[in-house]
Structures are given as C-alpha cells and as structure tokens.
C-alpha cells in the first residue's frame, strides 16, 4: 500500500478513535450517556464538541486554516455518527428487541449489523478525506504531537 494512503487511513482512524473516545469518556464522566441518565442533548454535544476543538487548537497551536480543517473533520464525524445512529434510534431498544421473544432474532441482528456496516462504508470516504485534509495541513511538529497523543492512549490526554 502506498505510504500516503496508509498514513491517511491511519490519521483518519486515529482522529475517529480519538474524537469518539473523548466523546464516550465525556458522557461517562459527566454522568450521562451509557452509565447515566440518557444520551447527551444536542446543546451538550455542541458544547463538548467546541471544548474539544478549542483544546486541540490550543495544544497544537493551530492557525485559522488548520482550525477550519479540524472543524470540518468534526462536522464530518458528526454526520457519520448521525448516519450510524439516525434520530429516534435507540441502540438499547434495538438490542432488547433481539431477545424480546423466546428465540434470539438472528435475522434482525444480521440486518442491524448490515445497516450499521453500510452506514460506515458510505460515510468513510468523507471522513478519510476530512482527516487527511486536517492532518496534511499540520506542520511536522504538530503532526508529531498528534502521533505522540495517539501513542499515549486514551487515558493520558494531551499532556500525558
């Protein structure tokens, strides 16, 4: 595989994992989401998203263009998330429906997996392009900070 394609895929995956992991960690820490009283409201999600963008902008010393690329990446990831979890869709209810009867609904389970896989497949090119645009706009020292952040893992944050 060509080096630039490989790097683009790694950057896209890394950005997706980082932003997704931070979103999950925030929902758990703030007492909502999976372990609390329900999912984040749109206002909470927007506030969280802005906080993450501000933090990344600060840590990486992003210029205005780089910040715009980061915002575009966040927008693309949000669109992917919405296509993966359409409005009114509740994963817990979907999973509960699989065991509502006397037998596990394997056909519906496979259908759910297919739907989610297709949503990811359809949104992936846009996510990869946005991640590549953002990552490629970074200066070498900024790229190294991103690599260092990813190497530290999700529990150590920017300052690890």
Q: Can you walk through the features of this model?
A:
- There is one protein chain.
- The protein is mostly helical and 160 residues long.
- It has one domain.
- 75% of the residues lie in helices and 0% in strands.
- α1 crosses α5.
- It starts with a helix and ends in an 8-residue tail after the last helix.
- It comes from Ideonella lacteola.
- This is Spy/CpxP family protein refolding chaperone.
Tell me the number of helical segments per DSSP (H or I, 4 or more residues long): 6
Q: Roughly what percent helix?
A: over 70%
- Can you tell me the number of structural domains? 1
Number of strands: 0
Low-confidence stretches: 24-37
C-alpha-based Rg, rounded:
18 Å
Provide a short characterization of the protein structure.
The protein has 160 residues and is mostly helical. It contains 6 helices and no strands.
């Amino acid at each position: 595989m060509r080096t630039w394609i490989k790097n683009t895929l790694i950057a896209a995956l890394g950005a997706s994992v980082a932003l997704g992991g931070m979103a999950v960690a925030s929902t758990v820490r703030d007492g909502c989401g999976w372990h609390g009283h329900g999912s984040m409201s749109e206002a909470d999600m927007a506030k969280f998203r802005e906080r993450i963008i501000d933090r990344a902008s600060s840590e990486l010393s992003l210029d205005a263009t780089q910040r715009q690329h980061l915002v575009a990446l966040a927008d693309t990831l949000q669109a992917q998330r919405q296509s993966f979890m359409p409005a009114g869709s509740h994963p817990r209810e979907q999973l509960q429906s699989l065991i509502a009867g006397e037998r596990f609904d394997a056909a519906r389970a496979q259908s759910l997996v297919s739907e989610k896989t297709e949503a990811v497949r359809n949104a992936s090119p846009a996510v990869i392009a946005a991640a590549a645009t953002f990552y490629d706009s970074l200066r070498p020292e900024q790229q190294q900070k991103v690599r260092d952040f990813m190497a530290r893992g999700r529990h150590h944050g920017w300052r690890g």
